[in-house]
Amino acid sequence: MTALLVVLAALGAWEGYARLSGIAEFILPPPSAVATSLVDDRGLLWSNFAITAGEIAVGIGAALLLGLAFAVVLHLCPALRRGVYPLLVGSQTVPIPIIAPLLVVWFGFGLAPKVSIIALVCFFPIVVPTLDALGRVDPDLRKLMRSFGSTRWQTFRIVEAPAALPGLFTGAKLSVAIATIAAVLAEQAGSENGLGWLFLQALPQFETPRAYAAVFVLSSFAVLLFWLLALAERRLLPWSRQPRGTAP
Amino acid sequence: MQTRMTVPVQAPPPARATTGAVRLRDVRKTFAAQRSSGSPVTALEGLSLDAAPGEFVAVVGPSGCGKTTLLELVCGLTAPDAGTVDAAPAALMAQRDLLLPWASAVENAALALRVGGGPRAPARERASALLRDFGLAGFERARPHELSGGMRQRVAFARTLLAGRPVLCLDEPFAALDALTRAEMQEWLAGALAADPRTVVMVTHDVEEAVVLADRVVVLSPRPGRVVATLAVTAPRPRRRTDPAVVALRARALAELGGRS
Fold it and tell me: How many CB atoms lie within 10 A of CB B188?
């Protein structure tokens, strides 16, 4: 509620400044112009949104599969974890604007380079919290399982895997937030469609309101995805929101 | 619906503890130094302890005297550096309930049965029946965070019993509860063990709890832990903490504890 008021106040101030200061619309369009563009350009925005949303969905999906697989393998094999974890960190420090054009050169203008970049960016924030959650299982609980004669695999299946789900959700939520940035960077490195491409096309045409509208659509999509994930987490893992269940 | 009627409820193990002896002889257990500056820590040194089948032995001692290590030895979770440990299969119950937060009371109680394999329906049936015996009827499907501390400990105890081991190792099982609930739970534990007798080795820092519940109270020295006194509790059950015999024994045990520190 308060957040809504803050947004409304900021929009009002922006609208007032853009109109009263006489600043050119292609430099700072007022929110009303952006809204008009949202309506007038809806066909263009929608078709490009569908492209970008598809890239993001496939990219995050790939990152979730790979990230989960990596986290599980590294967790079950501590030696591998020591060897591979630093490489994972390294992979995250490679600047995406450098990689993106390379991938375009390798894979062309299609879906593959975008999905690769989104998956690359989202992979790390998924692996880290999942791996952490797997490793944070109470040692006394492992001991208890051992006293019941549990095998390594049983302890993983019965105790560790469910305990890791909140970590996986945290990773997915982080991914959603940064996947949009990755998608735009990937599209700007070379593509023929998508919201990032639309944004880049709109600016030199002095269609600044359309560029803002593209940003608005993309941000709204990310917020919606985040909200859906948070909702799913609350529904599927109600226990994870409780204070640690073992505390008295 | 028909299957529900015909599925036989698997009988619990016979309610007589004829097996389940525990025998520790001259046990030593040393842990490697935690930090480079520290020296190795000897938790137990020359410790000998016996529990006859069906006997309730309480072990009291100052903090850090290796009580938990003693239980891990009995449960076979760790091996002694010297001496021998000869114990019937044992199940461990810790101070914290260690219930799985995503699982219901029944699923938690049936954990050991699930680990042991076997069909799921009879396991759940046995767990529900035991939870009902433990006064948790109606809470079978509740998650741990919906239960009170005392209820959670009862679920944890059901889980320990259903492991089906002749020996129970209880590690300060009620230390995390408030005084009132603790007293209730001690009474309740005495009743539950009367219904399903097992050999019990209980570690506690609460001398009164030890005297009220146990057949024998073993007093350990500060680290490295050794047995400094063994007190037989012959007072009839059920015992009250105000019984003169209980009060006298408690004073003796405290004197043994205090005199050696």
Answer: 18
CB-based contact, A141 to chain B, within 8 Å:
yes
Q: Which two tokens stand for residue B17?
A: 């503890």
| CB contact residues (below 8 A), chain B span 25-64, against chain A | none
Superfamily of domain A32-236: MetI-like (1.10.3720.10)
Is the pLDDT assigned to residue A71 strictly greater than 90?
A: yes
Q: A2: which strand partners?
A: none
What is residue A103's predicted lDDT score, i.e. its pLDDT?
85
Task: Check CB contact under 8 Å for B145 and A240.
Answer: no
The position carrying tokens 């903090």 is B63
Contacts of B76 in chain A (CB under 8 A): 147
Q: Return residue ranges of chain B for CATH 3.40.50.300.
A: 31-89+165-261
Q: For A21-95, where are the alpha helices, taking DSSP H only? A: 31-40, 42-76, 78-93
Q: Do A240 and B99 touch (CB under 8 A)?
A: no
Q: Decide which of A192 and B7 is more confident.
A: A192
- Average of per-residue pLDDT across A219-223: 93
What does the alpha-carbon distance between residue A156 and residue A160 come to, in Å, rounded to a whole number? 5
d(C-alpha A7, C-alpha A9), whole Å: 5
d(CA B94, CA B159): 12
What's the Rg (C-alpha) of chain B? 19
Of B92, B101, B112, nearest to A245 by CB-CB distance is B101
Please state which of the four CATH numbers 3.40.50.300, 3.40.50.2300, 3.40.50.720, 3.30.390.50 is assigned to the domain occupying B31-89+165-261. Answer: 3.40.50.300
Domain spans of chain A, in order of start = 32-236
Nearest to A140 among B96, B100, B177 (CB): B96
Q: Determine, for residues A147 and B92 on separate chains, whether the beta-carbon distance falls below 8 Å.
A: yes
Cβ–Cβ below 8 Å for B77 and A243: no
pLDDT per position as a tens digit, A3-46: 899 999 999 999 999 888 888 888 888 889 899 999 998 999 99
State whether residue A142 sits within 8 Å of chain B by CB: no
